Amino acid sequence: MLKLKYSDFKLECGTDEAGRGCLSGPVTAAAVILPDNFKHKVLNDSKQLSESKRYELRTYIETHALTYAVAHVFPKEIDNINILNASILAMHKAISNLKETAEYIIVDGNKFKPLNDIPYETIIKGDGKYLSIAAASILAKTYRDDYMAKIHEEFPQYNWKKNKGYPTKEHRQAIKDHGVTQYHRKSFRLLPQQLKLEL
């Protein structure tokens, strides 16, 4: 069973991001503050859940959370500031967009930067330990998936609807065949380096 709180603060916010390892599309973060009476049997790290379950949970989270927000940071900025800074920026944006000011922040992972002097704790595998981080992981993942499905319509040859911008064999082949788009992260190694030169 996931725990509701890490701290004693009433307005404890959980935050997580999705899309860090992708070759295209934004890195997306969500921030969620849950009420003290929040319960859900199935809520867990988004990677453990089926797609239909994630969308079902998203509706439940949005209905029952005290406040939530989602933010994207797009490829151009990712290329400028690097993916780690972009992930933290996306989390900062999401937290700043909450309707209530967070009194404490719990972050999935081990990297974060202070935001407005709000105390925080980074928690490795936090999305499998705390409900608010798990909830944030579901919102970040589903909103990012929606965005990838939308840009898939523009560039169907990359099949983003299915691979969501992750470095699948098919996605890399499409980059080889069709080149890159404005949605690709130019600072990422989009194609594996060839092991031997073709002479």
UniProtKB/TrEMBL annotation:
Cross-referenced HAMAP family: RNase_HII_B (MF_00052_B)
Listed name of the protein: Ribonuclease HII
Organism, as annotated: Mangrovimonas spongiae
The keyword Thylakoid appears for this protein: no
Gene from which this protein is expressed: rnhB
This protein's GO CC annotations: cytoplasm; ribonuclease H2 complex
NCBIfam families membership: PRK00015.1-3
Family: Belongs to the RNase HII family.
Substrates-to-products reaction catalysed: Endonucleolytic cleavage to 5'-phosphomonoester
Documented EC number(s): 3.1.26.4
Cofactor binding comment, as recorded: Manganese or magnesium. Binds 1 divalent metal ion per monomer in the absence of substrate. May bind a second metal ion after substrate binding.
Localization per record: Cytoplasm
Entries under Pfam families matching the protein: RNase_HII
Described purpose of this protein according to its UniProt entry: Endonuclease that specifically degrades the RNA of RNA-DNA hybrids.
Keywords per UniProt: Cytoplasm, Endonuclease, Hydrolase, Manganese, Metal-binding, Nuclease
Binding-site residues for a divalent metal cation, renumbered to this chain: D16, E17, D108
GO biological process assignments: DNA replication, removal of RNA primer; mismatch repair
